[in-house]
Amino acid sequence: MMHSASRTTTLAVPRAMRRPRDRALHVPLVAVVLLASIAVAAPWLAPVPPNQIPSDGLITASSPTMAHPFGTDPLGRDVLSRVLYGARVSLGVGTLSVALAVGFGGVIGAVAGFMGGVVDTVLMRLVDVLLAIPRLLLLLVVTALWESLPLSGLIVLLGLTGWYDVARLVRADVRALCGRDFVAAARAAGASPARVLWRHLVPHLQPTLLVLGTLGLANAIVLEASLSFLGLGVQPPQASWGSILGDGYVPGGRRWWLTLFPGIAVVSSVLTCNALADALRRRFDGRQVGV
Amino acid sequence: MPDARSTGGRRQRIIARLLQSLVVVWAAATLTFALMRLAPGDPYSRPLDGAGLSKAAADALRAQRGLDQPMLVQYVRWLGLLARGNLGWSTMQQRPVAHVLREALPRTIGLMSLALVTSLAAGMALGTWQGSRVGTVGDEAASTVSLVVYSLPEFWLGMLLLQLFAQELQWLPAGGIVAPTHEYLPFGERLQDRARHLVLPWLTLSLVGTALFSRFQRASMREAWREAHVRTARAKGLPPWRVRWHAWRTALTPVIGLAGLTFPSLLGGAVLVERLFAWPGMGHATVAAVSARDYDLVTAAVLLGSAMTVVGTLLADLLQRRLDPRVAT
After folding, report:
1. Which residue, A97, B178, B199, B221, is most buried by CB atoms nearer than 10 A?
2. In this predicted model, which residue has the larger pLDDT, B173 or B47?
3. Is the pTM of this model over 0.80?
């Protein structure tokens, strides 16, 4: 994509971050804290254990009641409890895989941009190849081939398929920064390449990494939900928002509560991430990072 | 790619890009080839259609398809066939992969391109409208709505639409391409039948796509207003609609780039929507093929996906160069 046009503006941001009263930024930040607390506090918030099948024989999906505000799934499990516990899996898998993707992509991109030459060419051609494979298709193939993938496998898989954009944009940033005077000054002052990279370049990558990480989280949450919906993500009886959607979905089933509540959980997290990414982008001088 | 500029000549550049694209597609397909064979199981290790195979029968079938050969031998053979345009044999559907594709691909491409054209048109219209009045109440409202729609996972939106319009209201069919009675309908009703089956999957894909493109169009319009030539146009005292045209024209370049990138993701995104609406296209075929370890069909699907990615990017790139002489990436 074309970033060159807007690249001329200053990349340093920290002062701008401290501007007070930006509702567009604060509302999603509060939502992030809220969602994270729900995930952490799930055991105390959930009325019953998420995988508990009722012992009194009511093993059927029933619409919301006072006892089960979100209804029950086909196995009679409480949907509210499953959605609360599902937050741990959905947000946890998303966050960890994005951390992996941003870390990996950041290192690859920084190395490629900083070293240039053959290293750059080889790494970027590799990224070209990997980018050409549609991500969902690749995930689908791998998760279906290795059945009963553990949760850690899912995290690694999402991480390993999520770093390409990070690498490309970080590389572009690093290359643009390398031509700036402060880098030349640092070099002239005798700083080692590692020091230039770490002390002088990496701090400037903050905006790109933050925005890409936030967008990546939105993506990872949707992908995990999609895979689990298809029964290829988390393994039963584990609850994730996608697996609750999948467990409850029967064509013509007319069980709206099994679609509505876990779906709202997914949408609110994705919406939070996207709103946060928008606000961060605006903070960082309106640069278009990511799509 | 700075080297593209130095070689000079448009034709040479295009040829270089095409060769590069070919390498990318080959590498992606090779990766899939290896992935499929490294995974546990093969097409004959699990019961087909619930009927188990004896070990001897499975071995005989493997020998027949050359699956008992070393991986390298299989790879060279597969590559040789591919070079001659032979995509292989679908072990699941018991017919050439090309036949499967000929049937499934048009259904996917048809649905997807219809959705892409709709999203592009509606999204660009909305984004342009917003981009000319950034900060007004109308713009803010539209931005909020498109942010929410953009955040809806396609399959979930599809589930909602399906439950509302097909199950509760029963206005539209719940899935498939045509009704079972399609063959017996008169021509006019057949068209109507097809259209009615198309509405829900099309709407699902188009709504999210429209939000995507309108957001992007608005953002790039906003950026275009800051450009020197747009400011000049305004300073010259041109009427507002002509200034807006200048900005729109500038904003077009990144939007085309996004469209080029979105085109291939249609194939991947198709999987869930097709499954939801029982739309027998590529996504449907691929999911079934993966679990049946249908090596050639899966490899062909990924090959196709990466080819579309490369072609989409290439087309967008060429178009961008035509429209905007400043593009020199």
Report:
1. A97
2. B173
3. yes
Q: Do A226 and B35 touch (CB under 8 A)?
A: no
CB contact under 8 A, A274 and B258: no
Asked if the peptide bond before residue A237 counts as cis, ω within 30 degrees of 0, the response is: yes
H helix or E strand, kind and range, residue A236: none
Q: How does pLDDT run across B7-51, given as a tens digit for each residue? A: 457 788 888 888 888 888 899 889 888 888 887 777 777 654 445
State the Cα–Cα distance between residues A110 and B177, nearest whole angstrom: 48
Q: What is the predicted pLDDT for the residue at A7?
A: 44
Angle at A214 between CA A212 and CA A216, to 5 degrees: 65
- Do B142 and A266 contact (CB within 8 A), yes or no? no
pLDDT for A20 equals 52
At residue B218, φ and ψ (nearest 5 deg) are -60, -45
Q: What are residue B96's phi and psi, to 5 degrees? A: -60, 145
Residue B177 above 50 pLDDT?
A: yes
| A269/chain B closest Cα distance in angstroms | 9
Hey, is the C-beta of B24 within 8 angstroms of any chain A C-beta?
yes
Closest CA to A110 of A196, A7, A219: A196
A232 secondary structure, DSSP code:
S
